[in-house]
Amino acid sequence: MNRTSRTASLAVTLAAALSATLAPAALWAQDSWIERVAAASEGEHRSAANRARNEYRHPAQTLSFFGFEEGDRVLEIWPGGGWYTEILAPAIRGHGSYAIATWDPDVEGQPNYRYELPKQLQATFDAKPELYDQVETVYFSPPESASLGEADSYDLVLTFRNTHGWVGDGSAEAMFTEFARVLKPGGVLGVVQHRAAAGSDPEQSAGSGYVSEAHVKALAAAAGLEFAGASEVNANPLDSRDHPRGVWTLPPGLNLGGTDRDKYLAIGESDRMTLKFRKP
Asked: How far apart are CA 90 and CA 18, in angstroms?
């Protein structure tokens, strides 16, 4: 189901008004996809810091663009701390199925965050079963643990701000191939990624957190996926992409600490592509 950005904005306003009078669970059970997403994004189960990121990440508009139909099976790749998980899980609950592909704890030698973040996310799930009891977990740490499950099993695969890491470590082609394998025919891969300037060398730009649109499109095409559209909802023309510590110089990371903090807060989060691909 696709809606315009204007409709998504109206849904955010409506959800905020209704959430003042209805319990979130009741609201999400009654409303359309876009209204459930909008309500979940402003839900009290989210921290104030995470809700503040809505201004830059536009979850209602983004997820409206990717689309969701009643009964869809959705897979989110490497959700990290769960910023989108805490929106997707309640919005999909009772209307489809939602799984996260997180790092496999049985794979040795990974960075420490790959063991700690999933534990923290599971603790959140356990603390709020009324929101997260239907979330499924798939362990995925290629190349040792490289399967996302059965072929042709998901309607929608989503990845947010991960692609630069895969380009950087040389695994991007295998990742996109696996996404295509588990998508159903007609299924959609939705990608949000920090956007490098056109013509950038991906091996160089990925180290700063950025990848060009052309390179992401090439990865998807090589995996047999067809380009199905782009949205500029997460674009930021203030982002020069030339920062001392790459994309992590910008909020929310602000890796320079107090140095030029106001400057980087004024820029906001990174310029991002929002791309949709379909499996033939």
From this structure: 16
